[in-house]
Amino acid sequence: MKLTGKKGFICDMDGVIYHGDLLLSGAQDFLQALKDRGRHYLFLTNSSQRSPRELSEKLRRLGLDVDAEHFYTSAMATAAFLASQCEGGSCYVIGEPGLTNALYDAGFSIDEVCPDYVVVGETGSYNYERVRHAASLVLKGARLIGTNPDVTGPAEGGLVPATGSLIAPIEMTSGRKAYFTGKPNPLMMRSALKKLGCRREETAIVGDRMDTDIIAGIEAGIETVLVLSGVSSREDLQNYPYRPGHVLEGVGDIFGPEA
Q1: Which of 20, 142, 177, 254 could be stapled to 156 by a disulfide with Cβ–Cβ 3.0 to 4.6 Å?
Q2: Is residue 213 annotated as part of the catalytic site, yes or no?
């Protein structure tokens, strides 16, 4: 099945739709094509910083009209996973309000003394004291959770540290490896398909990273589309033992003749 025949699209955001506050070329045409053709679509992001409502508002500021129901974040995936493991549990969080609010919504409380989990996501309020305290809690028995394994993320000025980088000092200090709930975790992909309302055979996943988006799609049996507007470049393809189904310059090419 060609891309144009797919019923549903799961699409990454950072490096695909925008870089920071810069809307990427072709994003508006892609979204309009989805709406005009009546396709199901879900924006699936490994970022845990913003809630679906905040992401909707951000896209609106950039000129795209997308309701909050079309977003699923790694913060939501993290909260759902922890709720299934430890109903009514507690967390010490290094992250932004999007993550904290998702955990609250799932029935978790914030505990800085004796939490069940230490949860780490992207944040600008990252410092030595918080890392030291998080490591001490893990050494006392708290389980370490990362919202996603991304080491870097795209921004207007280039690459910036992401959760994988921020959680590494805690792993090294405590000697405990984190469990990551975002892409390419199959749990997040199953939740995304359920929310999208499409079977995997009817769906394509669009992303800018070989190590999360593309491998997530391959392992979930979903058609994969790598766009070269974010982290992974065409030259990077030789570094991986797997290949995307399609390689395009950007999302604006998805409904083009080559797709």
Answers
A1: 20
A2: no
Q: Which of 14, 116, 150, 213 is catalytic?
A: 14
**12 annotated to a ligand binding site:** yes
Identical fold between 3-46+183-253 and 86-180: yes
Burial of 217 (0-12, 13-18, 19+ CB in 10 A): buried
Amino acid at 7: K
| Cα distance between residue 250 and residue 258, in whole Å | 12
Q: Please tell me the predicted confidence (pLDDT) of residue 124.
A: 87
Q: Is 183 annotated as a binding residue?
A: yes
Domain boundaries, the chain: 3-46+183-253, 86-180
- Catalytic status, residue 14: yes
189-241 pLDDT tens trace: 999 999 999 999 999 999 999 999 999 999 999 999 999 998 899 999 999 99
Q: Is 39 left (phi over 0), alpha (psi -120 to 50) or beta?
A: beta
**Contact present, 151 and 178 (Cβ < 8 Å):** no
For the domain bounded by 3-46+183-253, which CATH number is listed? 3.40.50.1000
Does 14 count as an annotated binding residue? yes
8-state DSSP, 14: B
Single out the catalytic residue among 12, 116, 211, 213: 12
* Residues in CB range of 57: below 8 A, 6 or more apart: none
pTM: 0.90
Sign of torsion over alpha carbons 127, 171, 73, 106: negative
CATH class of 86-180: alpha beta
